[in-house]
Design brief:
five-stranded antiparallel β-sheet; 554 residues; alpha+beta; single chain
Length: 554
């Protein structure tokens, strides 16, 4: 068919007759795909998965025991903390206030919170890809001369103003899988925030107890130092009257100076706990003793209200309670969706482009002139057949990464169980150790008191007094450490059980509203639908203005 070139002032563009070649091309592509087995082998799975290639996610199995080793011990069957605020079991108002302050001010927690904002942005990008991917406003206005007659240059111009829109159809579920992956990554970022909160509260309580232990040990050392100074003074008086020797005095003085030398080391330990507490509170290091007080009186526990029982639950609870375990599971879900994203590249992609606008053409003087509307619909099929080796290996890479994250998730569950078992054993055994040391310390105090009275009456052996005074100091110091270890191991149990992240939910309730007990969030079996944006933090999570708020179902 001839297509004549228009001439003269009335020349117009004569459109070429349209032929449904894109339908022919699409049919050929579909026939090629079916003949290659790509669709025929996976058509049922594609339909079953909601018209998406790649596997639908299901939670991988986790190795958990039926119960803890010490599950039958009554001390492992205590009542659970109210609303998950385990630090309140110590009934220490100072510790409670430090927890709230650290939640509001800790910079590391705010740093982790910004990753939630990043994940939220990535999730928004993934959702946006479902809609037309490219939108452009085009303007083309060239003017010039493209020829020359005998007498003059021939002016020409092209004026086109148009809007271009292109949309790759999500025929194989590529973009929907990206949304699933972004949703799971967003969930994982929130779980990482909760895990950071659990770590922060555990570190804060641990260093607070260590601060109290150091205070108690300093008091014990100073009390024994006063006793030993009094004994040395008695020995010096006896030396003057000839009832004691210089050796007796120097032997007792040796013990006294050893006790005196232990105090600076204990003050160093207290100072280290002090400085760490300041950093956890988001403050420069400074002396906290005016704010924390001198601690319990001599003879009391470092943490006087330490409970003797803990609610250990069952190992399967870790899958729902520990944020790091939930984060590892969500990372598996995010990576599983990436298999479908890369698998979609094995199939042809279908896209539609449009061009709508206004055009005014003037070419070679009066040879061609046209003006009016401009409209194009551009179907397109793309199939990178020659890159099949690279694309198939991309799928293998994503699948291997998924298997790696599954193994990491299962190892995280095992590690969590080990941490609970170790902490629970330490909590129970440290109570038994403290009981024995309490009897030992009481006996040492009684024996030293008797020997001191006999020494005043010049009827005591200096070697025995030296031994008893040293034993008294060691027994009392070890008792303070053991009693503090009960609280430290209890904190470790709660940390290992994943307690403390519920503070995020409570801090978001306005006007001090009394919350109902926070339900443990369920573990999803599949990637959730895109979450509503209202629950995400704005500004940064952990800030006093508005920290993270609960997700649906929490």
């Amino acid at each position: 068919m001839n297509w004549p070139v228009p001439h003269g002032h009335d020349a117009q563009w004569i459109p070429r007759p349209r032929r449904p070649r894109w339908l022919t091309l699409g049919g050929l592509v579909f026939a090629a795909v079916c003949s290659s087995g790509c669709v025929a082998d996976n058509l049922r799975q594609w339909v079953h998965n909601g018209f998406k290639v790649g596997p639908n996610y299901s939670r991988p199995p986790a190795p958990v025991a039926e119960e803890w080793i010490y599950a039958q011990d009554p001390r492992a069957q205590g009542p659970p903390p109210r609303d998950g605020t385990w630090w309140e079991v110590f009934q220490d108002p100072i510790l409670n206030s430090l927890v709230v302050l650290a939640y509001q001010q800790n910079p590391n927690l705010r740093s982790v919170g910004t990753r939630v904002l990043q994940a939220r942005g990535q999730q928004g990008i993934a959702v946006g890809n479902i809609f037309p991917q490219n939108q452009q406003l085009l303007g083309l206005y060239p003017y010039g001369n493209i020829g020359k007659t005998a007498s003059r240059m021939v002016p020409s111009h092209i004026e086109i103003t148009a809007f271009n829109l292109s949309w790759e159809l999500d025929f194989w579920g590529k973009y929907r899988r990206q949304v699933e992956s972004a949703n799971a990554s967003l969930d994982a970022s929130v779980e990482n925030y909760d895990a950071a909160l659990v770590t922060l509260l555990g570190d804060l309580a641990t260093n607070y107890v260590q601060y109290r232990i150091a205070q108690q040990r300093i008091k014990i050392a100073r009390d024994n130092l006063q006793l030993q100074e009094r004994v040395v003074a008695v020995a010096e008086r006896q030396q003057k009257v000839g009832t004691a020797t210089v050796l007796d005095v120097e032997q007792l003085r040796t013990l006294m100076e050893q006790t005196r030398s232990s105090i600076p080391a204990l003050e160093i330990a207290r100072g280290q706990a002090n400085d760490i507490l300041c950093i956890l509170l988001g403050e420069p290091p400074h002396d906290l003793e005016p704010e924390l007080g001198p601690g319990p009186d001599l003879g009391s526990l470092p943490m006087p209200q330490t409970p003797v029982a803990v609610a250990a639950g069952i190992p399967a609870d870790l899958l729902r309670r520990r944020p790091d375990v939930r984060s590892a599971e969500r990372q598996v879900a995010a990576q599983s969706a990436q298999i479908g994203v890369d698998k979609a590249s094995l199939y042809p992609s279908f896209s539609i482009g449009t061009l709508l606008g206004q055009q005014d053409l003037g070419l070679v003087g009066s040879l061609v002139k046209a003006s009016g509307g401009l409209a194009f619909v551009i179907p397109q099929v793309s199939w990178p057949i020659l890159n099949y080796g690279r694309l198939v290996n991309n799928v293998h890479v994503q699948d291997a990464r998924t298997q790696e994250l599954i193994a990491t998730y299962q190892n995280t569950v095992l590690t969590a169980a080990r941490e609970v078992q170790t902490a629970l054993r330490g909590f129970l055994r440290s109570q038994e150790q403290a009981d024995a040391l309490a009897r030992s310390a009481a006996a040492a105090v009684a024996a030293t008191r008797i020997e001191e009275q006999l020494f005043d009456q010049v009827r005591a052996d200096v070697n025995r007094l030296f031994t008893l005074a040293n034993a008294r100091l060691q027994a009392q110091d070890q008792l303070a450490v053991a009693q503090g270890n009960i609280a430290l191991n209890l904190i470790t149990v709660y940390r290992a059980l994943g307690g403390g992240w519920e503070l995020r939910l409570q801090q978001d309730r306005p006007n001090g509203e009394n919350p109902t007990p926070a339900a443990t969030p369920p573990m999803p079996d599949a990637a959730p639908a895109p979450p509503a944006p209202w629950w995400l933090p704005d500004p940064l999570p952990g800030s006093p203005a508005r920290p993270l708020t609960p997700r649906a179902g929490q």
